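**User:**
If convenient, please work through this fold.
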Amino acid sequence: MGKTAFIFPGQGAQYVGMAKDFYDTIPVCQETIKLAGEVSGLDMEALLFEENENINITEYTQIAMLAAEAAMLKAVEEKGIKPDVTAGLSLGEYGALLTAGVMDLADVFRLVRKRGIYMQEEYPQGGAMSAILGLDTDTIEKICEETEGQVSVANYNCPGQTVITGEENAVARAAEKLAEAGAKRCVSLKVSGPFHSPLLAGAGEKLKVELENVTVNDIKVPYLANVTADYVTDKAQVKDLLARQVASSVRWQQSVEKMIADGVTTFIEIGPGKTLAGFMRKINRDVTVINIEKVEDLEKLEALK
């Protein structure tokens, strides 16, 4: 029997109403979302469940997404399902931290609230990100390096989909060159900052200071860091990797390939949307992906017991 991984999506998958049925029907899920509200000082129910524009503003999106994912994780854990390994894309790495038992829930909520604020404020000029479809990563990296201004790879999502990030003009210039080099499409992303760019290094430094106040527990479930696409084996590495993650490339494809090479055959995507399942179809169609987004999805887990 193959191994099981819990995986968590990042910013961009959010929507109003995510985790509402979990909140309404499972007490531990409601407690989790209420704790996120207490720790962050936000009306989490209003942010998650009532029509509002804040849900798509980074400083609010991040805590909202994590509150939803943490609630869903609690529901999965109540079903008695335990993973062999865990990982999350960008913000989703904090869901993996919770799965791994690396930090307490309140501390993670506090950190992610600060992370969202720091990332929102670090580069007020806006910056830009663009998804490059149908071009190899070597070509993308080379063109980014040759382009004037700050532009680099933000996300290695899956074969044929790489995201670039940086200064608005530099991203536009690079996208033009990438189209000429054979990219099928260059899709400008609706974001409020140049995420996972060196332009956000200052936000990472602020997060590092915040991390000094957090206790890191022993790692109970192996997890992979976005920065290295490798397992974090020493808890002393955790804080540095989280601080660096803000301004570093997210090596998601490499992380998934590593897990599959180590025998993972079932991936349980916990959180809103099916973004990671979509990437998985491009990375390896032979593995099983189970999406947990609604309460009824929990029934899919019965086969794993």
Notes: The chain has a mean pLDDT of 96.
